[in-house]
């Protein structure tokens, strides 16, 4: 490490300092969502509007619960990074930082809440 | 040359209309962003509905009442349209990322396809779900 020049340390990391990590993350979650989205629409969709007993039974099914859990984790992660790009395009300074922080908090809070609810329903 | 107008330049979405003519490519691009952000509302509603279901019948009745109300029904239907549009536009981006389909005519055709496709998929979803 002591022999690394500043130039060498910066190469390939770009203005954000994290290289193509953000872009790659969006690619990975996009591909996952191509599969998860139709599954989610046709797994969770029919349950919305059903009475309590049916909904409870619906998420007791392992496949339904796992698809929903994956959608929560991957979906909110995809949202977090996508919304960050939008925020960074239209705002700067403290506003930008506050909005990105709020997005991260909302995404993880919603993800955790959804997973907690699923666990209680499924188990 | 130093940028003397730093910070006061018009930003991309506000360039549409007054400065740039609306095109299939720019409209389909901004729609991808709008649909992606707008889906947060439906996502939070579904999370709330899941939490209510896990809390018990009384809490569920409240959430179910809201989710089946006509106004939220409209929100959810529009969100399904947004979801399918965003998914198809995302597929277009994955295709573009391979270096293909970047010619203007192809890009415009893909944009129209995403718009028409999302309406068709929404109708199928309404019929099946």
TrEMBL record, chain A:
Assigned keywords, A-Z: Electron transport, Heme, Iron, Membrane, Metal-binding, Transmembrane, Transmembrane helix, Transport, Tricarboxylic acid cycle
Q: Which cofactor does it need?
A: heme
Where in or outside the cell is it found? Membrane
What the entry lists under CDD domains is as follows: SQR_TypeC_SdhD_like
Q: Membrane topology for this entry?
A: Multi-pass membrane protein
| Principal location | membrane
Q: Membrane-spanning residues where?
A: 23-49, 55-77, 98-119
Q: Give the highest taxon in the source lineage.
A: Bacteria
- Keyword Transport: yes or no? yes
One Pfam entry name: Sdh_cyt
Recorded metabolic or biological pathway in which this protein acts: Carbohydrate metabolism; tricarboxylic acid cycle
Record's keyword annotation contains Magnesium: no
Q: How does it assemble?
A: Part of an enzyme complex containing four subunits: a flavoprotein, an iron-sulfur protein, plus two membrane-anchoring proteins, SdhC and SdhD.
Q: What does this protein do?
A: Membrane-anchoring subunit of succinate dehydrogenase (SDH).
UniProt-recorded name of the protein: Succinate dehydrogenase hydrophobic membrane anchor subunit
The scientific name of the source species is: Tropicimonas omnivorans
Name of the coding gene? sdhD
């Amino acid at each position: 490490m002591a022999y690394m020049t500043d130039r060498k340390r910066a190469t390939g990391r770009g203005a954000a300092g994290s290289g193509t990590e953000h872009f790659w993350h969006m690619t990975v979650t996009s591909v996952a969502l191509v599969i998860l989205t139709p599954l989610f629409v046709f797994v969770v969709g029919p349950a919305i509007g059903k009475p309590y007993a049916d909904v409870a039974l619906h998420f007791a099914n392992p496949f339904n619960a796992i698809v929903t859990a994956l959608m929560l984790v991957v979906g909110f992660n995809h949202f977090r990074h996508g919304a960050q790009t939008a925020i960074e395009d239209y705002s700067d300074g403290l506003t930008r930082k506050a909005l990105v922080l709020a997005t991260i908090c909302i995404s993880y809070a919603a993800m955790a809440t959804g997973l907690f609810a699923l666990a209680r329903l499924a188990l | 040359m130093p940028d003397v107008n730093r910070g006061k330049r018009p930003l991309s979405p506000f360039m549409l209309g007054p400065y740039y003519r609306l095109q299939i490519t720019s409209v389909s691009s901004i729609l991808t962003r709008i649909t992606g952000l707008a889906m947060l509302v439906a996502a939070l509603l579904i999370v709330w509905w899941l939490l209510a279901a896990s809390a018990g019948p009384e809490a569920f009745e409240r959430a179910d009442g809201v989710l089946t109300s006509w106004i939220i029904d409209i929100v959810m239907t529009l969100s399904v349209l947004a979801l399918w549009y965003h998914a198809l536009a995302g597929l277009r981006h994955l295709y573009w990322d391979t270096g293909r389909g970047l010619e203007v005519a192809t890009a415009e055709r893909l944009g129209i396809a995403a718009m028409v496709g999302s309406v068709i998929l929404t109708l199928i979803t309404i019929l099946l779900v």
